[in-house]
Amino acid sequence: MGLLDKVKTFTGGKGMAKVTIPTIEQQPSETATFPITDSVLKGTMVIAAQQSCTLLALKFEVWLYIKGDASASTGTPNLVVAGTYPDPSVSYAEDFVKLPAELAAGQVITHPWMVSELDLPTILAKHGYMEPNDALHDPRVQLVVKCIADVKGSPFDPSAEVNVTLT
């Protein structure tokens, strides 16, 4: 066990909950596609409590990574948009999870998420892609969705990431 794993275990951050992203745009997340000029992205996240914990909030982020050249292992990270549930400026349906929530070990919550005001063409233009479609089949461009469960007492909040294919 590495030093970071020992710190996570000691501080209660390891194994409190697991996050997965089963769907994006009503597609299985592993094969999800997203039109490069769309401005709204939605999906679902699943939080499975591995031990009793308090779920404080849910966060979702969309990142666009653009590698400077083909030999780079990771690209320049560009946070496109981020959202949080609950958002105090939004009213929610009654069937949405009320947070904070006490979760028992084994309890599973499935929750929809949505982010708007995505502007991929502007970010791509700043990186030399004046026509957004030029980035579609460029392996240096990668769209990543990240979902995070803010768990009380966990300095390392559980999260999941998936790559989404731009179309």
Helix content: under 10%
What CATH first level would be assigned? Mainly Beta
The CATH architecture category equals Sandwich
CATH H-level homologous superfamily name: Immunoglobulins
The chain-level structural class is: mainly beta
Q: Roughly what fraction of the amino acids lie in strands?
A: over 45%
Poorly predicted ranges (pLDDT <50, ≥5 residues)? 8-12
**CATH fold-level name:** Immunoglobulin-like
Secondary structure tally, helices:
2
Q: Assign an overall shape.
A: elongated
Distance between the termini: 41 Å
Q: Report the average pLDDT across residues.
A: 87
Can you offer a commentary on this structure?
- This protein is mainly beta and 167 residues long.
- It has a single domain (3-166), classed as Immunoglobulins (Immunoglobulin-like, Sandwich).
- Helices cover 10% and strands 46% of the residues.
- It contains 2 helices and 10 strands.
Please give a quick description of this structure.
With 167 residues, the chain is mostly beta strands. It contains 2 helices and 10 strands.
Features:
six-stranded mixed sheet, mainly beta, 10 strands, 10% helix, four-stranded antiparallel sheet, Immunoglobulin-like, 167 residues
List the helices and strands and how they pair.
Layout: H1 3-11, E1 17-24, E2 27-28, E3 33-34, E4 40-49, E5 53-66, E6 76-85, E7 101-103, E8 108-116, H2 120-126, E9 141-151, E10 159-166
Parallel strand pairs: 3-10
Antiparallel strand pairs: 1-2, 1-4, 4-8, 5-6, 5-7, 5-9, 9-10
